[in-house]
Design goal:
Elements lengths: L2 H12 L25 H5 L42 H10 L13 H14 L10 H12 L15 H16 L6 H16 L10 E2 L15 H6 L18 H10 L8 H8 L9 H13 L28 E2 L11 H13 L4 H292 L2 E7 L12 E2 L9 E5 L3 E2 L5 E2 L2 E5 L2 E3 L5 H16 L3 E8 L5 H6 L4 H17 L3 E13 L2 E4 L13 E5 L4 E5 L4 E2 L3 H21 L3 H4 L1 E12 L5 E10 L6 H4 L3 H26 L12 H5 L8 E9 L6 H15 L10 E2 L1
Parallel strand pairs: 3-9, 3-18, 10-17, 10-18
Antiparallel strand pairs: 1-2, 4-5, 5-8, 6-7, 11-12, 11-15, 11-16, 13-14, 16-17, 17-19
Helix pairs in contact: 3-4, 4-7, 6-11, 10-12, 14-16, 16-17
Bound molecules: adenosine-5'-triphosphate (ATP).
GO molecular function, one term: minus-end-directed microtubule motor activity
Main location: cytoplasm
Subcellular location: Cytoplasm, Cytoskeleton
């Protein structure tokens, strides 16, 4: 293996490549190896630094190494794992093997030769005889360097440039050396050297390393100034380095510095002088170099420790700078000793041959001293390392504390941020809740508005339909009457006129005829008399003619006169004939007039026929309108149901009864929207004492589908529920029940004379009658059941059968109908029958009340009206049930302070009311087909098909106006609110076609 490889090994250890201007020192001279035995070699056993960080391997503490460039690198030097040989031991090796040493070419005096040989052998391991195996030398070196790079065991001697340079530097140092040595010492050294050469022992290599060429960073820690002084090393000069390992990098150099602190009390000059084997001389550098070169050529090529230096011309010359301070190390072959003890001894030893035991004794002492020194050096190094480590740790702690402070600040900031975020989240949550509440209010408002609108629409539609029908009917009858009266009038007028005309005509014609006949008769009589007179006259005349022929003339004259008279008479006759003709014409005209009059009557009858036809058309239109009305009735029912669905299949209304004259201390119950919607009721709660001792009262507001104040009447209440009653007629199961504490007005609302039951049955009766014209025929069957202490009683049965006759409730699950066994059902064939039913029920309850005090308050009563309708025209059939329930008082057990039978009653009431609440709750929350606990109480079991999906439910929550009942009032209103918030599925009409 060559030197280059060895150098590579070193570079790996340090982790730092040699600087470029130091690259020519690629191989450390063997002589330098010794210097590193105690310091550098041990350090070289450290693992190489990772990157720029330098971690001291010898220190057990995990010290963080600062990577800051201005911080000094901390290097700790561990205790070498191996036991380093002392110089004496090393020296003993060649000494003991002296026989194996090459023969000295020159004769040397035995005393001097032995002294020099021993001295050299004791001083250095370089004094290895030629015939010592390379392996042996390598072992010795490895023993000295510990875990450091192994000395190559190649057969050829490494020819590193550094070695050459070392040789050259050494020779140069001879020129520049300013060593203050005495002449005697100089002489002694020269002599010793010469003697050593003669003995065949390689003198020590001199390595000269310019300080600048080491490329030490300026900020690298420098050795204390006192150290060179204590070493007594001049600032200029060349010193010998005994170590084969060169200072190959600045890091190495820095590591050396602390190590060199310890031997500060070593006097180099004294040591050198005492050894006498070597000396420094500025003037003898070249000569020594040549001597060393000669030494090399004198058969020592195979010994790496005896590597000869080359001539100056062969090695690169570093630029000499007068100002450059050269760092010089002198190898200490021996442990230092005080001049007082060592110098006389050595002087004496040099001059006189001393016995071997002295030498041995001396060697032992040296060995001990060396060990002691190494130990101290190690301890000091360790202490230094620890100090540095502590400093680093402290700085690290400071850093960490600063980081911790920073983190605490950050943490505080984060905590405050977290608080902010939490408060923000809280406000967002509150906002969300407010929005939800607002939305629910808005949704309720919208729903309410929609319901109102639908109600309005429906009312308007109904009113419009009624009005139209009325108007149509009125118009029809009016037109008919008008037409009939007009026709009658016309006919009468015509008849009268005709009769009058006929009468007049006949009278006129008769008068005219009689007149004419009389005239004719008069004229005929007159003409006949005249004719007779004329004939008499003619006879007379003829006689007279005869007689008077003469007279004829006379007569002729007379005749003429007569003729003229005749003409006159004829004229008169013509005139009479003309008059007769005129009369005939008048009669004819009269006759024509009569005819005309007769023809006018036909036109009138034609007009009458037209009118009749129009009347028929109007009647047909009315028929069509009736058909349309029937269709609209069906549509109305459908729309009505949709309206009911929109209103919700469970509706809750509240009624506050008025306070009686005997009652005082009313509760503060207000109706905020009484003027508008009448859907809210506000109750001022009981006063409570706050923590501050103040009396505070809370106002509780509840909203329902409708709220009736104390002034409301049963008629007003019924108007709101009449639509549900109508639904029962249309084929729905309807359940209306009154809930509230005793005395809150349940019975008054439900069963009083003008209560819901009589009103409902009356409306049903009226409506059934009205629907008859639309083809509907209804059968109505009523029952009245009491649920007392979880048993059914028939309130329409005989009073003596109460609590004895067992009434059974059977359900037809297929038809979803309820049948009552052993219960009387009364056919409602008129409104009066309802009164009878109510009377019977009331009587029975009164009888029962004698058995159990206040029984009416302690039992539920259910009026069941079954309505079955059929339409012959459309073929439809509807089956609906109207259940009107007056519940028992809802006061709480602890409040009623009941005992004994009352306690049982109260428990049963509470149970059934609680079950009713459960059923409503289950209907509101459960999915279709899910279990609803109807069977948990007799009441809910009885109303199974009237509560739930197939029914429409309305609950009246009755409220007492008294302050004493305030707590019960609030409880009732809460329960009602819960029911109001329940949505029951869509109701289904029970109709068949
Ligand atoms: N709206 C009202 N107008 C006038 N008087 C009323 C009204 N409501 C109730 N009353 C009267 O209050 C009294 C108690 O009413 P009612 O008997 O109806 O109460 P209730 O709740 O049915 O009690 P119970 O549970 O004992 O049957 C009766 O005298 C009744 O006439």
């Amino acid at each position: 293996m060559d030197t280059a490889n060895e150098n590579t090994g070193i570079a790996k250890r340090s982790g730092i490549k040699p600087p470029s201007n130091f690259s020519h020192i690629t191989s450390p001279p063997r002589a330098l190896a010794e210097l590193y035995d105690g310091s550098v070699n041990a350090r070289s056993a450290m693992p190489p630094p990772a990157g720029t960080k330098h971690k001291p391997s010898g220190c057990k503490l995990p010290l963080p190494i600062s990577s800051e460039p201005d911080r000094p690198l901390t290097i700790s030097v561990p205790e070498p794992a191996f036991k380093r040989k002392t110089l004496a031991e090393k020296a003993a090796e060649p000494y003991n093997q002296k026989s194996a040493a090459p023969p000295n070419p020159r004769p040397v005096p035995s005393g001097v030769r032995g002294t020099i040989a021993r001295g050299l052998a004791a001083s250095t391991s370089r004094a290895i005889p030629k015939n010592v195996s390379r392996h042996h030398s390598a072992s010795a070196l490895s023993g000295s360097v510990g875990a450091g790079p192994r000395i190559p065991s190649g057969n050829t001697r490494p020819k590193s440039a550094y070695g050459q340079y070392a040789g050259h530097a050494r020779s140069k140092s001879h020129h520049q050396g300013m060593r203050p040595a005495t002449g005697m010492r100089q002489r002694e050294e020269d002599d010793d050297e010469q003697e050593a050469e003669r003995q065949g022992v390689q003198p020590f290599h001199i390595s000269t390393v310019p300080f600048e060429s080491l490329n030490v960073p300026k900020n690298a820690p420098q050795a204390p100034k006192k150290r060179p002084n204590s070493l007594n090393v001049p600032s200029k000069g060349i010193f010998r380095l005994s170590t084969p390992r060169s200072v190959s990098s600045p890091s190495n150099l820095r590591s050396i510095t602390p190590v060199m602190e310890e031997p500060a009390d070593i006097d180099c000059e004294d040591v050198c002088a005492n050894l006498g084997a070597l000396s420094l001389s500025a003037s003898k550098g070249d000569k020594r170099a040549s001597r060393v070169g000669r030494g090399k050529t004198s058969g020592k090529e195979d010994n790496p420790f005896l590597k000869p230096t080359t001539s100056r011309s062969q090695i690169p010359q570093p630029t000499p700078t007068p100002k450059k301070q050269q760092l010089v190390f002198q190898t200490l072959f021996r442990p230092p000793s005080t001049p007082s003890t060592r110098v006389p001894y050595l002087n004496r030893f040099t001059n006189d041959r001393v016995p071997d035991f002295y030498n041995e004794r001396m060697e032992a002492m040296e060995r001990d001293f060396r060990m002691f020194k190494e130990q101290i050096e190690g301890d000091v190094r360790q202490a230094t390392d620890y100090k540095e480590s502590i400093q680093q740790l402290q700085s690290r702690v400071t850093e960490l504390e600063a980081i911790r402070a920073r983190l605490e600040v950050v943490n505080k900031g984060l905590e405050s941020e977290l608080d902010d975020t939490r408060s923000c989240l809280k406000s967002v949550k509150m906002e969300l809740e407010m929005n939800q509440q607002k939305h629910s209010y808005e949704a309720d408002d919208l729903r309410r508005r929609l319901r109102n609108e639908v109600d309005d629409l429906e009312t308007r539609h109904r009113k419009d339909t009624d009005r139209l029908q009325r108007e149509r009917e009125e118009a029809e009858s009016k037109v008919r009457k008008e037409l009939e009266s007009r026709i009658d009038k016309l006919l009468k007028e015509h008849g009268d006129e005709l009769a009058e005309l006929r009468k007049k005509l006949s009278a006129d014609s008769e008068a005219e005829q009689s007149k004419r006949t009389q005239e004719k008769e008069r004229l005929e009589t007159e003409y006949a008399s005249k004719l007779r007179a004329a004939a008499l006259d003619a006879d007379v005349k003829q006689r007279e003619a005869q007689l008077l022929q003469g007279e004829l003339t006379n007569v002729k004259a007379e005749l003429d006169r007569e003729r003229s008279l005749k003409a006159g008479l004829q004229t008169q006759l013509t005139e009479a004939t003309t008059t007769n003709l005129a009369l005939s014409a008048t009669g004819k005209a009269m006759k024509e007039k009569i005819d005309f009059l007769e023809s006018d009557s036909q036109a009138q009858s034609q007009a009458f026929n037209d009118l009749h036809r129009r009347m028929q058309e109007a009647i047909e239109a009315a028929e069509r309108a009736h058909d349309k009305l029937r269709q609209e009735e069906t549509l109305r029912r459908k729309l009505f149901n949709q309206v009911q669905e929109l209103k919700g299949n469970i509706r809750v209304m509240c009624r506050v009864r008025p306070s009686h004259d005997s009652e005082s201390d009313p509760a503060q119950i207000t109706f905020p929207d009484n003027d508008t919607d009448s859907k809210e009721v506000s109750v001022l709660g009981p006063s409570k004492q706050s923590a501050m001792g103040k009396d505070t009262t809370t106002a509780y507001s509840y909203s329902f589908d409708r709220v009736f104040g104390p002034s409301s009447q049963n008629g007003e209440v019924f108007e709101e529920i009449s639509q549900l009653v109508q639904s029962a007629l249309d084929g729905y199961n309807v359940c209306i029940f009154c809930y509230g504490q005793t005395g809150a007005g349940k019975t008054h609302t439900m069963s009083s004379v003008d209560g819901m039951i009589p009103r409902a049955t009356a409306q049903i009766w009226d409506e059934a009658q009205r629907l008859q014209e639309k083809g509907w025929r209804y059968s109505m069957e009523g029952s009245f059941i009491e649920v007392y202490n979880e048993t059914y009683n028939d309130l329409l049965g005989r009073s003596e059968d109460l609590d004895k006759k067992k009434v059974e409730v059977r359900h037809d699950t297929a038809k979803k109908q309820t049948h009552l066994e052993n219960a009387v059902s009364v056919m409602l064939d008129g409104p009066k029958r309802v009164e009878e039913i109510l009377d019977t029920a009331s009587k029975n309850r009164t009888v029962a009340a004698t058995k159990a005090n206040m029984r009416s308050s302690r039992s539920h009563s259910v009026f069941i009206l079954k309505l079955v309708g059929t339409n012959e025209i459309t073929g439809e059939r509807s089956e609906g049930t109207l259940n009107l329930v007056d519940l028992a008082g809802s006061e709480r057990l602890e409040h009623s302070k009941a005992e004994g039978a009352r306690l049982k009653e109260t428990q049963n009431i509470n149970k059934s009311l609680s079950c009713l609440g459960d059923v409503i709750n289950a209907l509101g929350s459960a999915k279709e087909g899910a279990h609803v606990p109807y069977r948990n109480s007799k009441l809910t079991y009885l109303l199974q098909y009237s509560l739930g999906g197939n029914s429409k439910t309305l609950m009246f929550v009755m409220v007492s106006p008294l302050q004493a009942h305030l707590q019960e009032t609030i409880t009732s209103l809460k329960f009602a609110t819960k029911v109001h918030n329940t949505h029951i599925g869509t109701a289904k009409k029970q109709t068949r076609t």
